Structure formats: structure tokens, C-alpha cells
Amino acid sequence: QQFSDFQCPFCSRVEPTVNQILEQYPTQVKVVWRNFPLPFHENAMPAAEAAQEVLAQGGPTKFWAYHGLLFGNQQTLDRAHLEQFAQQVGGIDMNRFRQALDNHTHRAEIQADIDAVNNAGAQIGTPSFFINGRLVQGAQPFEQFKTAIDRAIAEAH
What we know:
It contains six helices and four strands. The protein is α+β, with helices and mostly antiparallel strands. It has a four-stranded mixed β-sheet. A hairpin with a 2-residue loop joins strand 3 and strand 4. Helix 2 (about 45-70) crosses helix 3 (about 80-90). The model has no long low-confidence stretch (mean pLDDT about 95).
């Protein structure tokens, strides 16, 4: 599980490593995205809400495309750009998208991701990963993830 913040520079920095993990472990690893917008990143919560609406309308393929646009444009996550990126992804009903942002339609599910960590007693920053329950924090090099993944695979057998 990947707990991340679209405005966090460390979160964008780890994305190539996540892609490398998926290439190296195509059948053994599944990434589950969890929103963890930090309160001091003013555009992180709106970006998370926008990404959840793209997921709701377009499914995982559109979500991951939008996710890439957000991380590729972290300095421009204001409302106008969130809308522009949704249009760029294509196939998004923009009236519904705007309404979801205005009404904070996805705020509760984002808060549920945050609460899950807090309720478990974990103190995390972003990005943070739970690999079969074990915490790997930060934009770590591939080798650190490989060690944790290999251990989880060995324990599963």
C-alpha cells in the first residue's frame, strides 16, 4: 500500500522506483494507492479529491494517467489546472468533476485512508509504503524495496 501526497516532492521522486518494482515483480506486487494529503500542502487535498473523481468516472486507467499528470506538474495543482488535467485525460464529465470538487464528494474516503494510518498508531510521512504490513518510509532506493518485497514473498511461501 502506497500512502502518498500529490504535492509532496518526495512522493513524485519515488514514482520511477514504483514503476521499476512493477516491472521487476509483475505478478507478485500490486500497488494499492492511498491518499495521505499533508495538511501543510494546500493543494494536496483538492488534488486527491480530483484524482478520486477521475477514478470514479474513468476507472484505474484514467486514474493512473491523471496521477502521472499531477506528479508531473506539482507546482500547478490549483483548481484551474486540476480541471485542465482532467480534460487532458479525456472521457471525464467536467460538470460532474467540478461538482465533486465543489461538494467534496470524496473527502470522506480520503479521510478514511488518513484515519486508517492514525488508528493503527503509525506515525508516517509521505511517501510511506506498507509491504505486507511492514513499513518502508520515504523515497528509498529500489534495493530497499526489493529486500522488503523478497522477504514478504519468502514469508508467503
